[in-house]
Amino acid sequence: MDKGANRQVVIGVDTHKDLHVAVALDALGVRLGQLLIPATTAGYAQLEQWGRAHGTPTAFGVEGTGSYGAGLTRFLRQRDYRVLEVNRPDRAARHRQGKTDPLDAEAAARAVLAGVATAVPKAGDGTVELIRVLKVARDTAVRARSQALITLKTLLVTAPAEFREELAGLADTALLHRCAGLRPGAVTTPLAAAKHALRALAHRWLDLHREVHLHDGELDRLTQEQAPELRAAFGVGPDTAAELLIVAGDNPRRVHSEAAFAALCGVAPLPASSGQTTRHRLNRGGHRQANAALYRVVIVRMRWHPATVAYTKRRLAEGKTKAEIIRCLKRYVAREAFRHLLHRSGADASPPAA
User: Fold this and answer.
1) C-alpha distances in angstroms, 253 versus 120, 209, 268, 347?
2) Of 217, 257, 268, 318, which cross-links 263 as Cys (Cβ 3.0–4.6 Å)?
3) 257 Cβ partners below 8 Å, 6+ apart?
4) In angstroms, rounded to a whole number, what is the distance separating the alpha carbons of residues 15 and 21?
């Protein structure tokens, strides 16, 4: 019988687009070996076999579980391995120890072994992953649509005077449809070139607008199916619900408390005390898109939600600033959203990770 059959092994993985590097450690931190694999299903299976050849893998510490390591993370989770998300070593550690892929993989394994790495990665294999992909496509289309309109108006400023005056005063929608119907003919004059460019930009905007509308319809359906309680909350629309679902993931119980969720969204104040001064400062970290989503909910409630309007008036009378009130309300909305996310349809029912 292999003397290492009962040995517990921790494996760290430094992930890249095409190749992953793994290092195995035993329970005492002794380095058992390293492995280079392709970032394919066959490579993942090779890593599993290699790890089991050294003993019983108790945990995998993976860098980039949401990017280059997403495929490996899904593969390992499907086989019931414990996978933890590991941040890359800080600059000071890299300055002292150097930077190579095996060193990064070993640092990932040691972070798991020492209990420093405790974050459970998102599952990435449920409906929230569908929402995330659609949200990425929608957001990029919205940015490209805005850029197309800005570029169209910029070109219009330098267009020939008579043509520019002909389009002056039109609202954005009318301007876009007017430009989309232009017939430049042969591009032999500055006027024809301007018409050709404006027509192309207008058609681009209209195409992107249809694409955004298509994504919005799918996001509306998916978020309503997955989180009806969250969607029913005052001020929460499809885009906001999608952003909050994405930050929580398909396994929201990986976030061990509503305070942790607030910190993940960047709405939990950070202690900044020193000497005889006790204070907190604004948290500028966390998931900025989720933070912006909570801000939008708060602004809507401050205008239209009776209880929030009354709260705002009371806090203003106490001397609080509008910015301070918004921070308090974002913290409250994060607590409310986390409660809805835990009870959403299809959420991971497993208990939070220790």
Assistant:
1) 10, 36, 19, 8
2) 268
3) 352
4) 7
